[in-house]
Amino acid sequence: MAKLRTEIDKGLNPKTKPSSSVKCFTTYVQDLPSGEENGKFLALDLGGTNFRVLLITLNGRHFDMQSKIYVIPQDVMVGTSKNLFNHIAECLADFTTEHKVSKDNLPLGFTFSFPLKQEGLSRGILQRWTKGFNCPEAIGEDVVELLREAIHSHGNLHIDIMAILNDTTGTLMSCAWKNHNTKIGVILGTGTNACYVEKIENVIDFDGDKSKPIVLINTEWGAFGDNGELDFIRTQFDKEVDSHSINPGSQIHEKLISGMYLGEIVRLLLVKFISENLILEGKLNEQIQQRGTVPSEFLSVVESDKRGCFKECKKALAKIGYTQVSDEDCNSIRFVCECVSRRAAHLASAALATLINKMGYSSLTIGVDGSLYRYHPHFHDLMVQKISQLIDDKIMNVNLMLSEDGSGRGAALVAASLY
C-alpha cells in the first residue's frame, strides 16, 4: 500500500509522472450524474475480444437499453489500426440501421479500455495495447480521430463522438447514477484497473476546468510493479506467466490479480505438484502441459463446491483430461485455487484501501465490474473482509456495489453530461 501510494502521488505530478508506474491519467470528467439526464445516446464499448454497441434512452431515473455484441476476429485484433476501426464503423452502421437511428446524428460515448493519455474529453492518445490486441500504428494516435475517420469514410453514418472514457470511469458513473456516494470505479475482470474522485488541488498543473472541485483520475494501476515494486511478492510462477505473455515486464500488478492470468498460475502450480507426485498419481497429461489450457473459470468452478463436496471440481478436472480423481486430490486442487484467488482478492483490496485512505471520505461506495468479481463465488467476501482490515479507523462505511453495465450506461451518462 505504501509503495502504491508513492506511485500514485508521483503519477499525479507531471514532473514525476514519467518515472511512475501508475500514470494517473486525467479523464477530464468533472461532473457526476445528477439523475436528471434525458435523451437518446449511443455507446460503444471496446475492451476485449468482443465489443458492444448500445442505444440508451435516459429519462430521469429511468433508462432503456438495447445492445448488440460484435466479435473482433483475431486477425483484426493484431492487424492494422485502419482495419480495426473500419470493422468497428461497419458494426456501428449495422446497429444504427437496425435501430433506425443512422441519420439521427446521436451523441456517442466511447468506452475504450486500454491505457490512454487523455488530452480532453474527446481526445485520447493510445499509450499501449493490452489484452491480446496489437495494432502497432495506433500507438501514439488519438483513437477518437481514428474512429471519426472510419465513420467518415463509411459515408453512411451520422454520429457525434462526445467523449472517450475508460471502463473504470464508466463503472463509476453508472454506479454514481444510482448511488451518489460512489467515489471509486474498479474493474476486476480480464484485466484490472481503477479510477477515483480526486480533488483538483491534488492534480498538479491541471489543465481542465479549475472552477469545479473534482476530476476523475484513471489510475492505470495494472502497471503497478512494472518498475520492480512488486518483486517482493512475485513467485517463480508469476515470472513464468509474465515471460510467456504478449507483454513481458508490463502490467505486473494485473498479472497477479486479473482473470486473464489466474488460470495459468494455477496450471503451473498443478504441473509442479503432479511432477512431484503429490497429486493426480503423478500423471502429467498432454493437455495440462500446454499453456492456456486451464481457464480462470476453473478457479470459480472448483471453489463453488460446498466443503467436502467435489462434484464441480471433478467436472472441471474432466475437462482437462483427468477423469479418475480422488477426493483427496480434489481437496488439494481446491486449496491451490483458493491460495491464488485469495492473493488476488487481497492485492485488489490493498489497492482499493490505498485509494480510500487517500481520499479520506468517512463513507463511500465502490462500483465494481468485471467477470472475476461477478462470477467468482468468494471474491466479494474476501475483499469486504480485507478492505475493512486495511482502511483507516476514521472511515466508517465502505460498500462494494456491482455495476450494472458500467461501460455502456456509464458512457451514455458521460455523453449526456456534455450534451
TrEMBL record:
Family annotation (InterPro entries): ATPase_NBD (IPR043129), Hexokinase (IPR001312), Hexokinase_BS (IPR019807), Hexokinase_C (IPR022673), Hexokinase_N (IPR022672)
EC number: 2.7.1.-
PROSITE patterns per record: HEXOKINASE_1, HEXOKINASE_2
Domain Hexokinase N-terminal span(s) in chain numbering: 2-177
Pathway: Carbohydrate metabolism; hexose metabolism; Carbohydrate degradation; glycolysis; D-glyceraldehyde 3-phosphate and glycerone phosphate from D-glucose: step 1/4
Record's keyword annotation contains DNA-binding: no
GO cellular component: cytosol; mitochondrion
Keyword annotations from UniProtKB, A to Z: ATP-binding, Glycolysis, Kinase, Nucleotide-binding, Transferase
GO molecular function: ATP binding; D-glucose binding; fructokinase activity; glucokinase activity
Domain Hexokinase C-terminal: 183-416
Catalytic activity: a D-hexose + ATP = a D-hexose 6-phosphate + ADP + H(+); D-fructose + ATP = D-fructose 6-phosphate + ADP + H(+); D-mannose + ATP = D-mannose 6-phosphate + ADP + H(+); D-glucose + ATP = D-glucose 6-phosphate + ADP + H(+)
Name of one Pfam family that matches: Hexokinase_1
Compositional bias (Basic and acidic residues): 1-12
EC class (word): transferase
Annotated segments matching region Disordered: 1-20
GO biological process: glucose metabolic process; glycolytic process; intracellular glucose homeostasis
Source domain of life: Eukaryota
Function per UniProt: Catalyzes the phosphorylation of various hexoses to hexose 6-phosphate.
Sequence similarity: Belongs to the hexokinase family.
Protein's recorded name: Phosphotransferase
Organism lineage string: Eukaryota, Metazoa, Ecdysozoa, Arthropoda, Hexapoda
